[in-house]
Amino acid sequence: MFCYHCQEAKKNVACDTAGICGKKADVSSLHDLLTHTLKGLSFYAVKAAEVGISEPNIDQFMARALYSMVTNVNFDPAVFVQLIAETVQRREYLKRLLLAKGVELIVDLPKEAQWQYELIDQAAWVKIGETLGVMACGELSGEQADLHAAREMLMYAAKGLGALLEHIQVLGVFHVEHYAFVHELVAYTLRTDVSLDDVLAMSYKAGKQSLLVMALLAQINTEKFGQPEPTTVHLDTWDKPGILVTGHDFHDLHDLLEQSAGSGVDIYTHGEMIAAHAYPAFKKYFNLVANYGGAWQDQKTEFSKFKGPVLVTSNSLQQPKKDYTDKAYTSGMVGWPDIRHIDKPRSSEFKDFSVIIEQAKKCEPPTPITKGAVIVGYGLQALTALTEAIAAAIQSGDIQRIIVLAGCDGRHKERRYYTELVQALPKDALILTAGDTKYRFHDLELGEINGIPRLLDVGQTHDFYAVLAFLTHLQQIMQLSHVSELPVSFNIAWYEQQTILMMLALFALGIKDVRIGPTLPPFFSAGILEKLTQTLAVKGIDTPENDMAAMLGIESAPAEPQAVETASQTNL
Ligand code: SF4
Description:
Elements: H1 25-50, H2 56-68, H3 77-100, H4 122-130, H5 142-169, H6 176-188, H7 196-225, E1 231-234, E2 242-246, H8 250-260, E3 266-270, H9 280-283, E4 288-291, H10 299-306, E5 310-312, H11 322-325, E6 328-331, E7 340-342, H12 354-361, E8 373-376, H13 380-385, H14 387-396, E9 401-407, H15 416-424, E10 429-434, E11 444-445, E12 448-449, E13 452-453, E14 455-459, H16 464-477, E15 488-493, H17 497-508, E16 515-517, H18 526-536, E17 539-540, H19 544-552, E18 565-566
């Protein structure tokens, strides 16, 4: 096993015996075989697209399969065995379509496009996967090592795109061009005639594409659930039994709310699902009462204290603890062996959540762990409405700097940096956030600048698109030629593959001085880092005081950081 595709890779090198995330070596090995076969599928999909063959089922399968390997999504070896078999079958189908069209298949096929099996055999496939992972080509050095790492990065970008596309698919939308790009991206990893600059350029292209996909997801969410609007979300608990919903999938939340309305069961959000409170479609449900707990990594203690059932709708799953195993449910591509999974029957538009609702009725109310309230919902429309006021405050000097502090939270204790950074920022710094890194600071009492809240929470990870769209609008209103000319600094808390897309999007836009933390990605090889440093001045994080001073262009931190109170108290 060798996995280094998230921020929690062991010692920031790689998980090599078992994943810190809970991924076992056999699952890691099956991921490697699935990745191998998906490259072969994309190889044929690109050829098929060249002659006008379009197979939406294969495209959608591709997105699901990529998404299944995103960190903290699925840990069930049986799922990956099925996906591998299906990948090969779909590849062979494409091959037959090409042959029927008279397309001559090249003799010198990549091995990824040829892998075949006779029998479905999990144990044998685990062994094969062990020969295909990141380290399969042995120790590399120089440009070869850089190229290898850059190709890996392309696959992580593809997995992030797969996740976004799957979120779109479950909302019933399919735009072929995004899938065509994913195939192009995955097939590109097979190219041997490219330089490091070529591969990096392709990764930036993936970053740009991700903004289009994020924008599409935001648009569909808005069409289905309404325009998000600034909304106060309570963090305390009520005296009725509840169901806790975590992840990103608004469709699941909607179905659950619809089915639980009037049942006497309250619904609480967790992690990135907190963003749902801002959407008009969810506000009509009186039993959507509050957000419970913090970010995804706190789930093991918080799910136990919640008492009622927990529904994990997208990535963010950790190995369930025994004391809530019988109350944990997964949905969509998320899975853990022996944890109950709720799927949509083929004949129905809705998932049936009645088993969870009935179980909740017999549970105790949640144990209080937080109190107070936070404000969410500064989506693109709400941000755009503030553009004139923010532009005026920048011009008058009332806003000195905009700090974009976005991304995911995680377990590393070094992530307290994000709390300390926000605490250290002066009162004339405006903060934009998206994703769940906000849990490090969203309950701080940060005040306002000319009536504008200093912390503007845009939403989930994919709403990062709205941050960039707003900044572009602000730049235009201020008659500047590039976002970088605004007084803005980007500080990305990366964790998994969707936050890798955030970084790549910024690189693609030519935004310099992006800070990445709490550690730099382990797949940034020496050569990749050198290129990123030279061309874009990409950097890791330093102390909060030094970074604050650098972002604000002052020589050293002020002696007295502002006093900050918390609006809520955790761990009562
Ligand atoms: Fe380790 Fe992250 Fe890979 Fe899990 S996803 S095995 S924590 S590097």
